[in-house]
């Protein structure tokens, strides 16, 4: 049975990898003999003119870091936002004070990334008004920690179950809360629902405060899979489809990652957003 700790349940209420084209990362990252973390990465530009996603993955004998950032903000704004956030977090990860608990490190980094992206300017010195989502995980031993700001997702797959561990930080989250507390009627909810996917928290918003961070680690079991992805993936494939496609290709996480983006491409009829993902599988042997 896949379940979260009480704290994780509560959380539910270096170089940047630049993606200029569709990239298949098969063979780019291999499993680490000590940590037994197998990693697969895949990304497609979709039908968009620009690739605004940035992904990063690193594994060594001490820990594993994975990041997916989905940028937004016209022309190259989203590209710069996702790159800036990813590079900030990755560089600080390699230089971090390991006496600081990982949840606190993530909190500090969310604020730092937000400030860095919020202050981006163009060649004329005008603020870009760009932003990016960010999902990131750190695994030490079998202990999983995560950070989420925006509407990208983190899933955990165990046996035949899949569950998203973070919330989508969009207007629907606020509407759901207001409805639950009796502050709005179902009719008022429906009237506002057209704006439900508008983000209410993202890196670059300025003074970011809404973020999902698990204070207690999630303990991975053998063969557990962690999926980080931008919304281009989960808006095209539902949870059951994600589970079945990944399980079919395991234990080859590279093939599984590529299979997901291949299916997204095949299902694209008109518009398809940038789609990026990182797959991590934990194994004791």
Explain briefly what this protein structure is.
The protein is of the alpha+beta class and 285 residues long. It contains eight helices and 13 strands.
Q: What are the main properties of this structure?
A:
globular, alpha+beta, 285 residues, 31% helix
Give an overview of the whole structure:
The chain has 285 residues and is an alpha+beta fold. It has a single domain, classed as Phosphatase 2c, domain 1. The protein is built from eight helices and 13 strands. Helix 2 runs antiparallel to helix 3 and helix 7 crosses helix 8. The longest helix has 18 residues.
Order of helices and strands: HEEEEHHEEEEEHHEEEHHHE
CATH topology (fold) name: Phosphatase 2c, domain 1
Name of the top-level CATH class? Alpha Beta
Measured distance between first and last alpha carbons:
22 Å
The name of the CATH architecture is: 4-Layer Sandwich
User: The biggest beta sheet, please?
Assistant: 7 strands, antiparallel
Counted beta strands: 13
Give the proportion of residues in helices. Answer: 25-40%
- Supply the CATH superfamily name: PPM-type phosphatase domain
Number of helices: 8
Structural class: alpha+beta
Taken from the alpha-carbon principal axes, the silhouette is: globular
Residue ranges: pLDDT <50 for 5 or more in a row? 5-35
Mean pLDDT reading: 88
State Rg: 18 Å
- Proportion of residues in extended strands: 15-25%
Give the tally of structural domains: 1
């Amino acid at each position: 049975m896949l379940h979260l700790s009480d704290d994780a349940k509560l959380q539910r209420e270096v170089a940047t990898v630049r993606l200029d084209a569709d990239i298949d990362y098969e063979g780019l990252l291999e499993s680490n003999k000590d940590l037994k973390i197998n990693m697969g990465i895949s990304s497609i530009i979709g039908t968009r003119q620009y690739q605004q996603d940035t992904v990063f993955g690193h594994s060594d004998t001490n820990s594993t870091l994975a990041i997916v950032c989905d940028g937004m903000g016209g022309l190259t704004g989203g590209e710069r936002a996702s790159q800036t956030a990813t590079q900030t977090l990755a560089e600080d990860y390699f230089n971090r004070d390991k006496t600081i608990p990982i949840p606190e490190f993530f909190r500090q980094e969310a604020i730092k990334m937000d400030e860095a992206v919020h202050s981006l300017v163009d060649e004329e010195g005008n603020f870009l008004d760009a932003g990016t989502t960010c999902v990131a995980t750190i695994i030490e031993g079998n202990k999983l920690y995560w950070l989420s700001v925006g509407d990208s997702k983190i899933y955990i797959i165990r046996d035949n179950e899949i569950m998203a561990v973070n919330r989508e930080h969009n207007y629907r989250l606020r509407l759901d809360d207001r409805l639950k507390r009796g502050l709005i009627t179902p009719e008022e909810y429906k009237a506002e629902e057209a704006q439900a996917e508008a983000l209410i928290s993202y890196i670059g918003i300025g003074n970011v405060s809404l973020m999902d961070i698990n204070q207690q680690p999630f303990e991975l079991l053998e063969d557990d899979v962690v999926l980080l992805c931008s919304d281009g993936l989960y808006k095209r494939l539902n949870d059951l489809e994600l589970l079945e496609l990944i399980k079919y290709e395991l234990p080859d996480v590279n093939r599984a990652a590529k299979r997901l983006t291949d299916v997204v491409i095949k299902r694209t009829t008109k518009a398809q957003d940038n789609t990026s993902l990182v797959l991590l599988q934990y194994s004791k042997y």
